[in-house]
């Protein structure tokens, strides 16, 4: 095999087959079929959840993960927050001619590692190659299928319910920002990219979780805005209770950025009844991905349709939805 | 809305939501949910088929279709040739900043038209935007879910079985070739891009179809090579019986290209028992997409593992698998 991707690797001919067999299937090992085709036959009972996400993150590798880590965790989490057990992923890659096979191999190895951890199989795949200058290294689409186990019940949300965040907020977005070309500071920020399915399923086993969402693009503030939109109640967050790593706190302050709008790739936001909050928090904290979980606010009768922050200074601030993220291509 | 895609359309914030609502959902109409999210809950009984395909065709619009037509038909056909009824598609788009919204709108309209014809719903979607120069207009991934209805039985294939092609071969690849920048000839070639699911399901209703495959990248020769590989029997094609449009025949001869290796996006290859061949052909010919269907060869005890062509001149020629397609980005 050459050491770089050539246009022929996308032809569907022998070069494509060798790439799939010698790189993809070899690196994916037990999490993929022996010869990965573009389709798979699967057995599903009951209701299924179907999700899709394309990943165009830049740079392809970053502290805490790479585009492969992201492509598995992101889609696993999308399925999990719908109350489903993720089982199968598809893997569609668009490669730019000229990228190093070594890099691709590292990325596929990350896919295998995270799929194994999440307990999902990569059951079908597709490889395309575009000319140099017509892509950006590698784009990945993963679609996910899961079996619905604990349907969410957002219609039962009422004032008094508690809002839980499963850990420190803003890590992924801030880590990506400080990695970007030309960024003047070194930091020890790391992406929080992680598969949350086991932790969220455990949380749902113990207590009624009314609603969940992974707080990716747009961050915690954006998903809460989507939750509250057009509802007869509002969301009131307590800034003092929001878990923040020192590194994110430092960079946010320095740059004047709000970590509540910064992307997470290993954090979910949950709404639970007040009586269930302590038990859910206990379960979350038993996971390495939930150690810093905290109740960060409540559903309130005031401010219907709005997400409001009670700031450290005791003032109230409405958190609107971002028109556009100042930092493109974080996932 | 601006008339071009901006990076902010991929932010996950308000601009993304407006693009999804005002362009995608509006154009998709009844084939998509009112507000398209990245996940959907679906009910499936029995075995499901799951496929994925990314589309990077260049140019984005061509005679007979566009990347949207292709993204629906290609994935619908992938599901259908596994013996399943396609029901749901995901839609992941990667847009290059700067593309015209008008172009995107035409493409989404094609998606709607073909989804309606195929009887599938677009149930979940995702939109990402990359900087100008880091993509090529629009890349699309569609993953498909179908319910298995007529499982294929390739293990029952035996010498004497007939090979059917559902129509003229090579149209899509040749049409794309003559569209490419710098190609010196005008032609009236058109892509054959079409959803084959209804026709193939009808063919399977009437008779045992042992094996089917859509003959996309690599053409009829490549899918037959994949069929015969490592089998105790071979494939013998009769060149005289292979349906060819005059336009494809002309361009192929002029350029010295073999239409058997040229991509199709609306043709399938079937293997049926000799006794069923006439009935299957009858059913296929009732569809507008199967008018030119023909028996083009047989499974033979000779040439195990190989695909052999009995040429017009009466000589035998082995059809190998292409290492690499001379024409990149045809789908």
From TrEMBL, chains A, B:
Pfam families membership: AIRS, AIRS_C
Superkingdom classification of source: Bacteria
* BP-aspect Gene Ontology terms: protein maturation
The PurM-like C-terminal domain covers 158-302
PurM-like N-terminal domain span: 37-147
Q: Write out the similarity annotation.
A: Belongs to the HypE family.
Q: Which NCBIfam families match?
A: hypE
Name of the protein in question: Hydrogenase isoenzymes formation protein HypE
